[in-house]
Amino acid sequence: KRVAILISGGGSNMVALAQSMTGDHPARPVLVLSNDPDAGGLAKARDLGIDTAVVDHREFPNDRSAFEDRLHVTLDAAQPDIICLAGFMRILTEGFTARYEGRMLNIHPSLLPMYKGLHTHQRALDAGDVEHGCTVHEVTARLDDGPILGQARMAVQDGDTADKLAARLLPLEHALYSAVLRRYAAGDRTPVILA
Ligand code: GRF
Q1: Would the CB of 133 count as within 6 Å of ligand 1?
Q2: What confidence tens digit (pLDDT) does each residue in 34-44 have?
Q3: Full-model pTM
Q4: DSSP E strand stretches across the chain
Q5: Nearest protein Cα to ligand 1, atom 2
Q6: What is the complex's ipTM, to 2 decimals?
Q7: Are strands 104-108 and 131-138 parallel, antiparallel or unpaired?
Q8: Which of 57, 72, 108, 119 is catalytic?
Q9: Assign residue 144 a region: left if phi > 0, alpha if psi is -120 to 50, beta otherwise?
């Protein structure tokens, strides 16, 4: 299976996914695409020998469909079987996601369906949650809402801040996303639950 990974920033999830696709793994990374030309993940992808591309959303002010058309063309040139959103920070319209229904994944730093959208760690702290975590789901037209393919949980600790939570969660994201992709690429949609 050919996997394209979309990033916006450091790309630590992209690195984890790329490094998991070795040996008898049914998938290989074929493209890393960023909406931000300055994303640190682009250099990491090049170091890993993965083709990269940039579709800069700032070149399409007030024209989301032109941005998504360019995304679509750039993505399809790599002929991906699976698309992984990994720290990708642009909202995709129904028109775009519909083209990739059933083969686009996303990782979200909360225990969905709680805390869709942004600032998930602070919202969990503000709610006094004793548990936090991350979720991998299939991407559908509704934001952070598709079928859940995996979750990883961890305890909230006294004195936790949003930054501390985010930092402690990141390695769990890497483990979860890699485990989900391995299953998903083998055609198995059984959710992965990491305690
Ligand atoms: C991670 O918390 C991820 O869950 C969120 O973006 C953050 C950075 O991800 N979507 P990465 O290091 O760019 O993969």
Answers
A1: no
A2: 999 999 999 99
A3: 0.96
A4: 2-7, 28-34, 52-54, 82-85, 104-108, 131-138, 148-155, 192-194
A5: 109
A6: 0.92
A7: antiparallel
A8: 108
A9: left
